[in-house]
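Tokens in:
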């Protein structure tokens, strides 16, 4: 049984962060051929669900870089490798030292709650006004974050140089892993997500492989957080826009994500 895992941003989605008409049709063809596929993304369930809701993603979804797995068939959410209070405090202290607002993401009774302190930069205020406020996420002051909350990740946005310095420090710690990349808000900005180091797409993919009895794992991804699933995949493909390290791990490099690279490859690979 083939089982395909799609990263979203920079991979299945185009430059406008949507699934193109050509890729939509390709997903429909996969579904008609009973070729199994699902998503493995760093996005939260809330931000990703609207993008994939109408495209027959019936198998369990991997969110938050493997922390959250949602089974749409039985409507069950599984959480693993959450951040503990001490780890959260380390990240918050680091953010405060660099003058960056941390956005602490939690899940409670299937509700996505985001706790944050006072914003310190316009790009952070824009994130709230233009993105968070238009979703179903519930926003709360950081001071109201309860001990023992189910914290999936902590996200931040800021000037690229500052985020890079924070990324370097946080990745030096044994219990944390940080992923970062260019922000859509402009070339001077970067985003960063911080997770528990045991959280990975690879672990979640391995669990689903066993659960579903898959024999051939095919992964598509473009960034550092895809490395763990590339390392265990039977086949792994990176779009031309992927980071050099991911291209090195890939079985092959396919067309750019904004040229429907994944969809075009799949049509040839499975004679769709």
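Residues out:
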């Amino acid at each position: 049984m083939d089982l395909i895992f799609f990263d979203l941003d920079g991979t299945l989605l185009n430059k406008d962060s949507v699934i193109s008409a050509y890729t939509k049709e390709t997903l429909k063809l996969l579904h008609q051929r009973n070729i199994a596929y699902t998503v493995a993304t760093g996005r939260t369930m809330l931000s990703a669900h609207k993008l994939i809701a109408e495209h027959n993603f019936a198998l369990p979804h991997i969110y938050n870089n493997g922390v959250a797995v949602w089974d749409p068939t039985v409507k069950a959410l599984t959480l693993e490798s959450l951040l503990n209070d001490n780890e959260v405090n380390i990240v918050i202290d680091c953010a405060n030292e660099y003058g960056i607002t941390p956005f602490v993401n939690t899940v409670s009774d299937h509700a996505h709650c985001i706790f944050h302190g006072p914003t310190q930069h316009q790009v952070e205020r824009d994130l709230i006004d233009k993105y968070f406020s238009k979703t179903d996420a519930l926003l709360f002051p950081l001071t109201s974050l309860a001990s023992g909350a189910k914290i999936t990740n902590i996200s931040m946005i800021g000037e690229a140089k500052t985020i890079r310095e924070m990324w370097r420090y946080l990745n030096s710690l044994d219990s944390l892993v940080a992923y970062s990349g260019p922000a859509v808000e402009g070339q001077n900005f970067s985003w960063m997500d911080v997770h528990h180091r045991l959280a990975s797409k690879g672990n979640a993919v391995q669990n689903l492989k066993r659960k579903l009895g898959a024999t051939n794992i095919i992964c598509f991804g473009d960034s550092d957080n895809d490395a763990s699933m590339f390392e265990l995949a039977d086949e792994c493909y990176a779009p031309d826009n992927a980071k050099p390290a991911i291209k090195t791990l890939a079985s092959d490099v396919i067309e750019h994500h904004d040229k429907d690279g994944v969809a075009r490859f799949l049509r040839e690979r499975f004679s769709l």
